Amino acid sequence: MRGRTYHPPCCGPIINGHPDVARSALTGPPGAGPAGVVPLVVVELHPSARDRSVAIAAVLVELAARHEATAGIDRFEFIDELPVDRRHNAKIDRAALARQVSAGRIG
């Protein structure tokens, strides 16, 4: 939802709670006009679920709508592997992800 602030620490646990999601990252490519950004969640699925991304996207939209922290998020893009910080494999490299989104490689 444009004009609303979403917080990654609040959104991540909700989306990551889906059994087919390995991890996810909230980001927002520049939106049109003064309304700000359009929230986008980039999702890394477990390898066994990658062929079902379209169906999972629909479920994630419904899941997001059921929680105040994620209500209004309806854009989910899938990536084979989220970029991670070289020093901490579990930590998503949000700067690298933002560059991929800005370059049009995601979303």
Automatic annotation (TrEMBL):
InterPro entries: AMP-bd_C_sf (IPR045851). This is AMP-binding enzyme C-terminal domain-containing protein. It comes from Phycicoccus elongatus Lp2. It comes from the Bacteria.
